[in-house]
Amino acid sequence: MAINRPGEPGNQSFLMFCDYVKLSFVDRNVTLEAFKGSRKGTVYLMPHQVVFLSKDLKKALRSFTMPFSLIKDCKIKRPKLRPGYIKGQIEAEPNGGWIGSTTFKLTFHNGGANEFGQLMLRIQAEEMKKHDLVTPDQVQNRDSGSQHGH
């Protein structure tokens, strides 16, 4: 994940977008100013990543790029009487402006969480298979599995 990358999503093609989405980080130990609070904006589903663009360009975090290879534990939630959301873990991208991992939450106030999330998960799985990549989850499972076999 990278923050405030210039030109995202730029002239790239996107598969789907949703407006009136709130991005927040639910980790209590967040120290990076860009991750504090929430921001509203538009989220784009692209062939290799998800990009969030904030409506408020005065905030510390103006864009949030999540390559599929760095997303794990992603779940789509549809609570009753509240907007649906997508929640998951994101690992820092090399030279992405931060280090480590955090939990993100995208809340869809005008609907679309289920449709966006289902398509995102499908595209992520196809992308990982096509490029023979593994997610951080798969690396952990593979590592822990090999330890138990000895």
From TrEMBL:
Residues 131-150 are annotated as: Disordered. Residues 33-122 form the GRAM domain. It comes from the Eukaryota. One of its GO terms (cellular component) is nucleus. Residues 137-150 have a biased composition (Polar residues). SUPFAM superfamilies: PH domain-like. GO terms for molecular function: chromatin DNA binding; transcription coactivator activity. This is GRAM domain-containing protein.
